[in-house]
């Protein structure tokens, strides 16, 4: 949903910005030990299967699942996928991260990925949850 925001014309009818996607580094995410244990035992919340439909937006879903069979499903579990994400210019991300930690309000932070260009070549008529039936495409890739 956030990745699609650039695709639309704004209120002033300005042309859309460049289309964007994301590359996620699953090893940079902090997972709770209890969540990892539950995932190892195939225990998920009742809403996880609905959220799992969003895997269609991941261009390398099968490889990500094979590489991270415990961690990857947790990205779709609403109990663990509710972390706060900020999109910050890469130039300022380390300073922003340090400022968050220094504030004392956030016990941990992580840079979990990067925004990349999306050329739309993998759309395949794909719509994901919360897309409002708009073409979302395979905008996300998991770094293996």
From TrEMBL:
State the source organism's domain of life.
Eukaryota
Q: InterPro entries, from UniProt?
A: PurM-like_C_sf (IPR036676)
Protein name (Swiss-Prot/TrEMBL): Uncharacterized protein
Please tell me the species this chain comes from.
Grammatophora oceanica
* SUPFAM superfamilies hit by this protein: PurM C-terminal domain-like
């Amino acid at each position: 949903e956030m990745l699609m925001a650039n695709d639309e014309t704004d209120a002033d009818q300005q042309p859309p910005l460049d289309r964007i996607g994301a590359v996620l580094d699953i090893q940079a995410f902090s997972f709770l030990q209890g969540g990892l244990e539950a995932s190892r035992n195939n225990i998920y919340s009742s809403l996880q299967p609905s959220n799992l439909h969003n895997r269609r937006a991941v261009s390398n879903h099968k490889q990500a699942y094979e590489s991270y069979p415990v961690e990857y499903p947790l990205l779709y579990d609403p109990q663990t996928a509710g972390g706060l994400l900020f999109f910050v210019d890469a130039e300022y991300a380390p300073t922003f991260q340090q400022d968050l930690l220094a504030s004392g309000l956030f016990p941990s932070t992580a840079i979990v990925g990067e925004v990349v260009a999306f050329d739309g070549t993998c759309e395949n008529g794909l719509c994901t949850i919360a897309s409002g039936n708009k073409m979302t495409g395979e905008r996300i890739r998991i770094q293996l």
